[in-house]
Amino acid sequence: MKLIKKILAICFLLFGIPFSAVMIIEFLNPKTPAQEKQNDVAALTILTIPSTILGGWLSWSLVQQNRKQQALLVESEQQRLQLVFLELIEQNAGRITVLQLAKNAEISTQSAKEYLDEKAKELNASFEVNDDGNVLYRFSL
To answer: b/e string for 59-86 if b means 16 or more Cβ within 10 A?
Structure first.
């Protein structure tokens, strides 16, 4: 369906925009006879402007559809990350490291650190340094 919409949008725009431009140029040309100007207005009104509007609307709807899909993907990823975070907190008695979250959530250590820093602020976590020198985020259960 998306592919069909893209093809239709391209076709309508490729037809509507150039022919609209030609019709407008012809209409504005002072050497064009009055009868041809009437024909140009009719062609603009019946064919090219509606085609351009339809192509633009299809393009706009595709952009909106893509934005909604991206928002759903981001929300889904946030929910998955939240679930992994809560499972790790529960399994480790409230303690978690950046590496644990990164490994279990399959995200970069930078993303894991940012996420844990955000959660630490939100949930008033404390910090500890383990024997290996890693920072442990300690969340109250």
So the answer is: beeeeeeeeeeeeeeeeeeeeebeebbe
- For residue 121, what pLDDT is reported? 92
Per-residue pLDDT reduced to its tens digit, 56-89: 999 999 999 999 999 999 999 999 999 999 999 9
CA 99 – CA 87 distance, rounded (Å): 15
Cα four-point dihedral sign 48, 51, 57, 63: negative
Amino acid sitting at position 83: L
Residue 89: both structure tokens together: 């907190």
pTM: 0.63
Distance, in Å, from the CA atom of 25 to the CA atom of 118, rounded to the nearest integer, reads 58
E-assigned strand segments in the chain: 95-96, 126-129, 135-138
User: Which two three-digit tokens encode residue 31?
Assistant: 């050497």
Position 53 scores a pLDDT of 95
Give the largest Cα separation in the chain, rounded: 91
